[in-house]
Protein: 1-acyl-sn-glycerol-3-phosphate acyltransferase
Amino acid sequence: MILKKIHARFYRYSVGFFVALFYPLLYFYSRKPSRYATMNRLRQACSWCSSAISGIFYRVKYEQPIDWQRTYIVCPNHSSSLDVTACNMALKNNFHYMGKDAFLKNWALAIFFKSMDIPVNRESKMSSFKAFKKAAENLKNGRTLVIFPEGKIPDDYPPRLNEFKNGPFRLAIELKLPILPITCVDNWKIIWDTGLETGGSPGIGHVYVHKPIETSHLTLEDADRLKDEVFGIINTKFTSGQW
Structure:
């Protein structure tokens, strides 16, 4: 258990190390939205390096070829801090995240959430409104949005899928954008949550990118059905444990 906890902390420190290493470039590319696509590639490089040095790698499988020229609302499940890195590895277009505003106080993540990503206070309706308004603007400008519809990592171990929130599905219907479901099948077996309590270990995380779900024919009355459909797709893959 001690070695597992050392590994989890080593991974966390490696994230900080590579963000610090790339910081001058990250800072430069964070200054203008026109540079965010390059900043994303730097984020992907940080993610790959911090994972690889910790002995963590990812295998990504696509249900069908993805048209990366399109804009998506990406909905992954969430059971591990590795899920963000996994999405970084799986996505091939210009994307950004919506996440809790606590990340603004995390020095390694703050540079992203003070520029291209969107912080949100989940306890404030006004903060949520402003966050989704900003997300809509970014989506209209062609920047794919990644949002974890569970809202948080489940407390249960082994993890199960928490109920999804409505926000991303209503937004997808309003903007007539496809939902791209992603199942992080077993990242939690490498590092569950942040790993601070259970520790971590080297391993291979398996990521399954499902086919996009079109919303152009839907109305807001279909939001709950769309949410349930995406939940079912991800839950089936996640509970099966089959990549």
Residues 2-240 form a domain with the Glycerol-3-phosphate (1)-acyltransferase fold (CATH 3.40.1130). Residues 88 and 129 are 26 Å apart (CA to CA). The radius of gyration is 17 Å. The beta strands are 56-62, 73-76, 95-100, 118-120, 144-146, 179-184, 203-209.
